[in-house]
Amino acid sequence: MSSFPGRGLPTLHTQSQSEASHHTETCNVVIFGETGAGKSSLINLVAGTQTALTSCDAMGCTTETNVYDVLIQNRTLKVKLFDTVGLGEGPEGKVPDKDARRVLKKLLRDLMKQTDIHLLMYCVRGVRATKALCRNYDLIRSEVKERVPIVLVATSLEDKGPEMEEWWKDNERSISDFGMTFAGHACVTTATIDEYAGDKLKRRRKQSYHAVCQLIEQYRLLERVQTPLLDVGRWLHSTIQQVSTMAPRYVVLGYSSCPYFTIIDEQEKA
Ligand SMILES: Nc1nc2c(ncn2[C@@H]2O[C@H](COP(=O)(O)OP(=O)(O)O)[C@@H](O)[C@H]2O)c(=O)[nH]1
Ligand SMILES: [Mg+2]
């Protein structure tokens, strides 16, 4: 773990898991949200350790940005998880909201200058979604615009029935009515488990781990497809032009993520 104090233009120094240094592909994921939402617990879930300090009191224990290197996807994808200062604390808090917002904005700006932020995770408690969620969302959205996808991770859903995903079904409409759009979501529990944990909690934690990893991996897949798509787009354009002069009845369509091409008979279409 290393810290990222958010002052000056930061240099990333991470004391990573030793294996992590052998992996060249790195995905930078910044986790943000209110104090107590479960951000540090989310990191521990993905890391499979108790490395990030968590706190059960209303005052956060994360007073600066901490960076954790974690390997996922059968240890082939290196992920840098940024645990950020909790938002929403009062003036008496360890990091009052005003300061936390300033630190977070600066972190995003510095990171975008220095490297890439691949994904932003908005971590929220899985209670009823209210307009209050917009405040932090708007802060981040106005900073990164559409350049970085934001996904939503709702925690504390270990008792939600019948499945944790029910939270999304219950709240999707309000979230959209409040004007928030997410590139993906995961309904999870990041509760720590001990030897007395029941099977249901263990199962749900495992599900949660996979759901969060999937959000990260999905982003990765999208990025891989996008570049070849540009080439395919150019190739398609010229091919369609050639084909249309030679044999106007056929149009060849291709898509880099599809293992096949479709041939449409223009006459049948008509
Ligand atoms: N029941 C339950 N408790 C959680 C969950 N996630 C975190 N907590 C607890 O909530 C408190 C705050 O979590 P923490 O990860 O420190 O939140 P942070 O301030 O956003 O980093 C800690 O006591 C955690 O053990 C969860 O999914 N379910
Ligand atoms: Mg924390």
TrEMBL record:
Any one GO cellular component localisation term in the record: cytosol
InterPro entries: GTP-bd, P-loop_NTPase, Sigma_54_int_dom_ATP-bd_1
Keyword Hydrolase found: yes
Region span, Disordered: 1-21
G domain span: 28-154
Extent of the signal sequence: none
One function term, GO molecular function aspect: GTP binding
Coiled coil: none
The protein's name: P-loop containing nucleoside triphosphate hydrolase protein
